[in-house]
Design a protein that fits this description.
mainly alpha; 6 helices; 65% helix; globular; membrane; DUF2752; DUF2752 domain-containing protein; transmembrane; transmembrane helix
């Protein structure tokens, strides 16, 4: 028996965590110096456990590069990360709008844009992991 999805409306308080989380990620990428992105520990559990990059490996560094004006390096690190950043910005805008006015997330975001971005990231991530695993691609991470 499948569990039914909750149809309760999201409360204003329930919007605070996603708004803060997306905002913090974007702010951190904007203020963290690019120089700190070239060194440091690997934090991706999939990469640490399997040696293969996850679909979003390189996204943190990509966002930082992008927000510091280095689009070429951002795309080299993870070409789907700018697309994910665009989705994060769109969702952030609509969540803030929902917090302020009560207007819900538009269907074209929740039923169109979000699944499309997830599909692109998944296909890219799986393809990259297979190519890295077979030695056909050297992962820069």
């Amino acid at each position: 028996m499948a569990l039914a999805a909750s149809r309760r409306p999201v409360t204003r308080r329930g919007l605070l965590l996603p708004i803060a989380g997306i905002g913090a990620a974007l702010l951190a990428a904007a203020v963290v110096p690019v120089s700190t992105m070239s060194s440091g520990p690997t934090t991706c559990p999939m990469l640490l456990l399997t040696g293969l990059p996850c679909p979003l490996c390189g996204a943190t560094r990509s966002w930082t590069m992008l927000l510091h004006g280095n689009a070429a390096d951002a795309m080299r690190l993870n070409p789907t990360a700018p697309l994910v950043m665009l989705l994060a910005i769109v969702v952030e805008v609509f969540l803030v709008r929902q917090f302020v006015t009560g207007a819900r997330l538009p269907r074209w975001v929740s039923r169109g844009l979000f699944p499309a971005v997830v599909a692109v990231v998944a296909v890219y991530g799986i393809t990259r992991a297979v190519l890295v695993g077979t030695g056909a691609w050297v992962w820069p991470g």
